[in-house]
Specification:
alpha/beta; Beta-carbonic Anhydrase, Chain A; 5-stranded mixed β-sheet; 4 helices; binds zinc ion
Length: about 180
């Protein structure tokens, strides 16, 4: 995969997807496919909660390979109710016992406000999104700390569940741990 070599966006008049091309791309994926025997339980018993950003593969930036960790991705990598739902299932049904929260530089949610995002939705669709909290943030370390705390506070995760926080720099590839106050549940 070439850095900064992503294809140009299609024009607005064209559909995004070409199903024949997708089927063809899948043939290429299958040409070297050798992971059909992996087990469903992640072997490193870990979960990564991170942003949906298209510029980094969540696993490999922290050294995980296919089959080793669960990936939960959403806008910002925030500890939403649905992210926590996934963590609970991951822990109790599939044996994970630790989560890394990774937020990143140049995030699309950084510096946004709910008002701004709601007015974009309103002007594009005419619909009110006043009830949606888009969870924007203005301080990257603080957002990591908040989400680490949110997960640590979850009473449905197992005893001894480990949660750490990190920041990923999309320009350099560097991952920096974020100090989070530890306290026992
Ligand atoms: Zn992001």
């Amino acid at each position: 995969m070439g850095e900064l070599e992503g294809s140009a966006p299609p024009s607005a008049a064209q559909p995004v997807f070409d199903l024949d091309a997708i089927v063809h791309d899948n043939e290429q994926w299958r040409a070297t496919f050798d992971v059909g025997a992996l087990q469903v339980q992640p072997t490193k018993q870990a979960v990564i909660l991170t942003c949906m950003d298209s510029r980094y593969p969540a696993m490999s930036i922290v050294g995980f390979k296919l089959g080793e960790a669960h990936m939960i991705r959403n806008a910002g990598g925030r500890a939403t109710d649905d992210a926590i739902r996934s963590l609970i299932i991951s822990a109790h049904a599939l044996g994970t016992r630790a989560c890394i929260v990774i937020h990143h530089t140049d995030c699309g949610l950084f510096g946004q406000t709910n008002d701004n995002l709601r007015s974009r939705v309103k002007s594009a669709t005419g619909q009110s999104a006043a009830h949606i909290d888009f969870l924007p943030f203005a301080d990257l370390e603080e957002s990591v700390r908040d989400d680490v705390e949110q997960i640590r506070a979850c009473r449905f995760l197992p005893e001894g569940y480990e949660v750490v926080g990190m920041i990923y720099d999309v320009r350099t590839g560097l991952v920096i741990p974020v100090d989070t106050p530890h306290h026992d549940a």
